[in-house]
Amino acid sequence: MRKLHVLLEPSMKSMALLSNLTFLTILRLEYCSNLTMDGFNPLIAVNLIELEVRTCNTLAADMLSEVASQRAKLLPADYISRLEMLTVDDISGLLVAPICNLLHLLHTLEIEYANYWMQSFTEEQEIALQLLTSLQNLRFSYCGGLQSLPQGLHRLSSLKELRVFECPRIRSMPKEGLPVSLRKLKMNCRSAEIDEQIEKIRRTNPDLSVED
């Protein structure tokens, strides 16, 4: 099996059910709030290219953390994750150095419906984000509590597209601006202050396209 999408399955309570699916390239788990890490086999993540986890508590972070911790025991010493696309609604425990050090090929990170209590990124999360050196697309959607974007965005030198959708509490751009590599900014719910800041950014990056 190469692709698996599990949706609204409260009866699924253990990752052991997936333990033999070591050839998965796409895994989507949504609204499986009873699903636990019991019986998780890190080898099911070896070939993953796309991982999407929503409303499953901290499952995404727990899975990748286990892969990182078991790296030396079960995987080749030079192993890096093949993961290219990651979509989550909970980044607590996800943006940490051991996990981000694995994700050398990750080009798309989408954070949707993030915990309402999440207002900003911690210093640890900011530092870990810089380890995603291949990141080209960063998306925030329906993050109702988020008041600010990562302050270190300007250091993401591979970033091409930034999308901020329905995050109405964000009132300003990062103090250091955006990376010069950025070519497309999609952002609705913009304030007058944000529009003014974007105009300043475009003066130094005329290739930047801005859309609502």
N-to-C terminal Cα separation, in Å? 39 Å
Please tell me the overall pLDDT: 91
Biggest sheet character:
9 strands, parallel
Estimate the strand proportion. Answer: 15-25%
Number of strand elements: 9
Global shape: globular
The helix content is 10-25%
Low-confidence stretches: none
Q: What structural category do the secondary elements indicate? A: alpha/beta
Using only C-alpha atoms, the radius of gyration works out to: 18 Å
| Side-by-side strand order of the widest sheet | 1-2-3-4-5-6-7-8-9
Q: What is the count of DSSP helices, taking H or I runs of 4+ residues? A: 5
Can you write the helix and strand succession as a string?
EEEHHEHEHEEEHE
Account of the 3D structure:
The chain has 212 residues and is an alpha/beta fold. It has a domain at 1-83. The chain is built from five helices and nine strands, in the order βββααβαβαβββαβ. It has helices spanning 59-69, 71-74, 97-100, 123-129, 192-204, and strands at residues 3-7, 26-30, 50-54, 85-88, 108-112, 137-141, 161-165, 184-187, 209-211. Strands 1-2-3-4-5-6-7-8-9 form a nine-stranded parallel beta sheet, with no helix packed on it. Strand 8, helix 5 (192-204) and strand 9 form a beta-alpha-beta unit. The longest helix is centred in the C-terminal third of the chain and has 13 residues, at 192-204. The mean pLDDT is 91.
